[in-house]
Design brief:
This protein is α/β, with parallel strands linked by helices. The chain has 13 helices and twelve strands. Strand 4, helix 6 and strand 5 form a beta-alpha-beta unit.
Length: about 400
């Protein structure tokens, strides 16, 4: 019987399992010493001058980031239609209005030109999404933000580790960068996320708001000289703290994240070689995809390779949906990233959105399929995926 190759699997080893077991034996299950160390290690991983705030999801981090920079009712926040709903829904949590714009057809990241066209007197922030692990054109986006006095919160759910023109994502001059540690990500804790910022005041606000607006977290209350029972509520906060068990896993994963990313890059390179000449567009990546507008990536920039997105062209012998069905019949899981927000009932109906308003996102969606790419894949798994794709798209 043929073994099924899933679309994604986390790369969890005995060291992660032992770290979680040790955290459980320590008695710290909620936010505690592991979470504190994870924050320090994550900030050090990216570079000096950053503060990191651990949260229970990237969605929580995006929400806290917009709250910290003062987004509220009546404000507009620009992001892309070609993303998961979290990138936009967090603005609605605060009573603000997300303004959805199209992508660059080459990079599949948010179009800087579309951002600039969408700015109004109510615009307060931009949320660029580093799609698939490829950095957005951050030079252009940050220039637009400076020109118009806007804040920038990077959705880096796909982008650990990635870089833009030699600088790691997370170290640029944005207000916040937010990462995801969901089960399919390069660094996985099941659920979890991290916010990073250079602004100490913004970091303090996020820490307070992630735990009910309490002026100090549980670890502080039980290790400080103040009475453990005493706390003060200084704001109506949320419940977004990361558990110590998840943080313990994350600390181990962080030590392995470059190697796991490098394995994903090896798989992407193998796919690139296997798919050359097929009726499909290979995924955008540094050195291959300059983008339709703005500044090109450095060829040496890191792509996190969270996703490997193939776009079938019109010469392909079968359509996207049939392709996915045939791959499943062959025992290989695939997915689509994403059904754009302009097609989702809530966003479509609330903002009267149509496919014609997002031609590049719509065209990409209709052609794209995400293939398995994760660091636990064996060479045999990679070869089987590549051979099956080539067979379906016309190579004997």
């Amino acid at each position: 019987m043929t073994t099924f190759i899933p679309f994604a699997l986390p790369d969890i080893g005995e060291e992660e399992i032992q770290a979680v077991a040790d955290a459980m034996r320590s008695g710290w299950l909620t936010t505690g010493p592991n979470a504190r160390e994870f924050e320090k290690e994550f900030a050090a991983f990216l570079g000096d001058g950053l503060e990191a705030v651990a949260v229970n999801s990237a969605t929580a981090g995006l929400h806290l980031a917009l709250e910290a920079i003062g987004i509220g009712p009546g404000d507009e926040v620009i992001t892309t239609s070609h993303t998961f709903t979290a990138s936009a829904e967090v603005a609605r949590y605060l009573g603000a209005e997300p303004v959805l714009v199209d992508i660059d057809p080459a990079t599949l990241c948010i179009s800087p030109a579309a951002i600039e066209r969408a700015i109004t007197p109510r615009t307060r922030a931009i949320v660029p999404v580093h799609y698939g692990g490829l950095a957005c054109d951050m030079d252009a986006i940050l220039a637009i933000a400076r020109k118009h006095g806007l804040r920038v919160v990077e959705d880096a759910a796909h982008a650990l580790p990635a870089s833009w023109r030699g600088a790691p994502i997370g170290t640029l001059r944005s207000d916040f960068t937010v990462y995801s540690f969901y089960a399919t990500k390069t660094l996985a804790t099941g659920e979890g996320g991290m916010m990073v910022t250079r602004d100490a005041a913004l970091a303090r606000r996020a820490r307070v708001m992630r735990l009910h607006g309490i002026d100090r977290d549980a670890f502080d209350r039980f290790t400080s000289k103040k009475p453990a029972w005493y706390y003060e509520i200084v704001a109506p906060g949320f419940k977004y703290n990361l558990t110590d068990t998840a943080a313990a896993m994350g600390r181990v994963q962080l030590r392995r994240v470059r190697a796991m990313r490098d394995r994903r890059a090896q798989i992407a390179a193998a796919y690139d070689q296997a798919f050359a000449g097929l009726p499909a567009i290979l995924p955008p990546c540094p050195g291959r995809t300059p983008g339709a507008q703005g500044t090109p990536h450095d060829a040496a920039d890191l792509h996190a390779w969270h996703l490997y997105v193939l776009r079938l062209d019109k010469a392909a012998p079968l359509g996207r949906d049939d392709f996915i069905a045939r791959m499943a019949q062959a025992g290989i899981g695939c997915s689509v990233h994403y059904v754009p927000l302009h097609l989702q009932p809530y966003w479509r109906d609330r903002y009267n959105l149509t496919p014609a308003m997002f031609p590049h996102s719509q065209a990409a969606f209709e052609a794209m399929v995400s293939l398995p790419i994760y660091s636990k894949m064996s060479d045999a798994d990679v070869a089987r995926v590549a051979d099956t794709v080539a067979g379906l798209l016309g190579r004997p």
